[in-house]
Amino acid sequence: MYSALAGSVKPPTRDGICSPVSVDHYENFPVASWLCPPQLRPAVVALYHFARTADDIADEGDANATTRRQLLADYRADLARVYAGQPPSERWRERVFAAVAQERHRLDPALLTLLVEAFEQDLEPPRYQDRAHLLDYCRRSANPVGRQLLALYGQTDPDSLAQSDAICSALQLINFWQDFSRDGPRGRLYVPQSDLDAHGVSADDILACRDSPAARALTQALCQWARALMQQGAPLALRLPGRAGWELRLVVQGGLAILAKIEAMHFASLLRRPRLTAWDAPALLWRALRMRA
Predict the structure, then answer these.
(1) Could you tell me the keywords of this UniProt record (predicted)?
(2) Less Cβ around it within 10 Å: N or C end of the chain?
(3) Which of 40, 46, 14 is nearest to 27 (CA)?
């Protein structure tokens, strides 16, 4: 059910843990897997391709920031056209907006717009001052996905929304701590300044992926934060009925498994990127089966 689509933790194409729809990038969590009810798959796939394409605009290729910003503005304009009942431009019509148009009665344009805003922010990411500042980014980059999926499942009570936000923010944070070696060369720093200061680590150390005992202690603290958020939201997986609950159990356990892999590396994710493989699937399934309140 939950994938923090496009920019957070992501679903597999080659060696993943579930059977996803065909996608173009290696990712760690399922999109529209066999656990997703068939009647919801078109909306989930439309959501995925909308977010994935926006992420590619922000990240892929050699375009400069000005060009990317204009493309994202065009993308947002196409979204507005679709919801105004007008045809989008040709550029993304077949891959993205034809499906969005078909599912627009089930997809919230405000949540889709928040995702695009997050990708726009990634073009010139700020230095995050504290954890609250970074969680505000997660509010746009990850939480809209969970809220949209909850709406598809008809679960929009305040407790469910809060727990969904906790899970999605945790997934986004886990992706950050998993991707130090990718984000550093791109000049992207998602570690709050308050955490850097508390551990005596500089922003340049993280961007250059310089490993040290202090950097590992920092990574350990960041992983503990993400784990606490995941545990805060995890009861939602036990409360959601049927397939939705089982899919969310797998996503929760997948996020926790990445944290466990970082811990097994002695928190050296500045040096290499941990990842899930098909060999992890039995353990994830077992842990999902054994989840308790």
Answers:
(1) Transferase
(2) C
(3) 14
206: containing domain: 38-289
CATH code: domain of residue 149: 1.10.600.10
Residue 60: Cβ within 10 Å count: 12
What is the spatial distance between Cα 52 and Cα 30, in angstroms, rounded to a whole number? 13
Output the six-digit token pair for 147. Answer: 């809220």
Please report whether residue 172 resides in a domain: yes
Question: Which two structure tokens, joined as six digits, stand for 182?
Answer: 């990718």
The values of phi and psi at residue 281, to 5°, are -60, -45
What does the pLDDT look like over 237-251, one tens digit per residue?
Answer: 999 888 888 889 999
DSSP H/E element including 284: helix 281-289
Average per-residue pLDDT for the chain: 87
Is 21 a member of any domain? Answer: no
Residue 135 lies in a domain: yes
From the CB of residue 180, how many other CB atoms can be counted at a distance below 10 Å? 26
Q: Residue type for 21, please?
A: V
**Residue 24 lies inside a defined structural domain of this protein:** no
* pLDDT mean over 83-94: 95
Half-sphere exposure of 248 (CA within 13 A, CB side): 27
- Residue that the structure tokens 């969590």 belong to: 29
Kindly report, residue by residue over 267-282, the tens digit of the pLDDT.
999 999 998 988 999 9
State mean pLDDT over 172-194.
94
Number of domains in the chain: 1
